[in-house]
């Protein structure tokens, strides 16, 4: 049996005297708690209200509506992040989405679900992706290269757990408000707490100087070219094929996760709980997401340790294929406890892939290109999430029960690990640099 190479320790405790990492984390975590509150109110209003019974197509359309348009504006996000103060962009963007949600309050309070609400939701999600891309691009400027794995683990995992916590806060607030008013008004009131989080995140950016999180000084044309510069980000990644393959793997993992999440949503909404009791379905689905959040946390905590032994490349390959057994079990035995167990393991392994690949990309891409590369990263991931939602819509019945979908996701994960990430194309001997 071939002995795995011993790697130097790639991660250390990322907090040092005078470190600006806590300030960056406070922006990300506060905003993502707000995201969880916002998303819980939106899900309650659109998918879990008594008069609106969702099917797979409706849920997939919701995903496409909120994510796919970012693939159009994403290239311009990268351009701005490489030209102008990321601190200022993140600050203004948080204020903009607070104002956006304020307008959404008026529509949801009146029970409106048409084009105006859809446009406001698009703005909220698009601005959110801009903020996260900016913070990811700026992270290597506040920590050393050796601390990137630990810092990413904390940033991404804390943010993901923040979304879960925010979702729980949102559901709890809704139950409190439901005692005194109708459901739509309760959902609108919950949004005020999300707005407060966004404003706090905007205030937290004042701890940075103008270009402390980038971009660093470099020569660049003042002409904004959008898609051409996204293409430049792709061409830069082609010079780092392991980072490009890692982005592809992360995007595919997120697409499969989305398909399974839609199956879980429909099972909890229409099968495991009575369809005429949407509150029970919402609570059960929230519990499954909370368990997935625990998996996400464990995935990040264990990643720095195992990377020191396996290396980044082998660890990503392993985590792509690791959820396959539980996904296959879920395909043939669609019980609630198996759904929750699958949520834990897919969340844990998926987070391990993302945290590792984020650090891989950050360590290999120069700062003057990092905004464009992370914009490409976001566009690719969003595209696969929408693809996963569309595939689920084509396969899933309203009940959410399907053997084909979990098997399909399992096969895609295995093929990604064995083909896209095959060792002679993806593995770099020695510690990641």
CATH superfamily: MFS general substrate transporter like domains
Class computed from helices, strands and strand pairing? mainly alpha
Mean pLDDT comes to 84
**Care to count the β-strands?**
0
Number of domains in the coordinates?
A: 1
Largest sheet properties: none
Give the fraction of residues assigned to helices: over 70%
CATH architecture: Up-down Bundle
CATH topology call: Growth Hormone, Chain: A
Which descriptor suits the 3D outline?
A: globular
Order of helices and strands: HHHHHHHHHHHHHHHH
Q: Approximately how much beta-strand content do the residues carry?
A: under 5%
| Straight-line distance between termini | 27 Å
Count of DSSP H/I helices: 16
Provide the CATH top-level class.
Mainly Alpha
Low-confidence stretches: 1-11, 429-433
- Indicate the radius of gyration in whole angstroms: 21 Å
What's the quick description here?
It is built from 16 helices and no strands. 56% of the residues are buried. It has 433 residues and is mostly helical.
List the helices and strands and how they pair.
Elements: H1 21-46, H2 56-67, H3 70-83, H4 86-109, H5 115-138, H6 148-178, H7 183-204, H8 227-238, H9 241-270, H10 278-310, H11 312-321, H12 324-332, H13 336-364, H14 367-395, H15 404-420, H16 423-426
Helix pairs in contact: 1-6, 1-7, 2-14, 3-5, 3-8, 3-14, 4-5, 4-7, 5-14, 6-7, 6-10, 6-13, 8-14, 9-10, 9-13, 9-14, 9-15, 10-11, 10-13, 11-13, 11-15, 12-13, 12-15
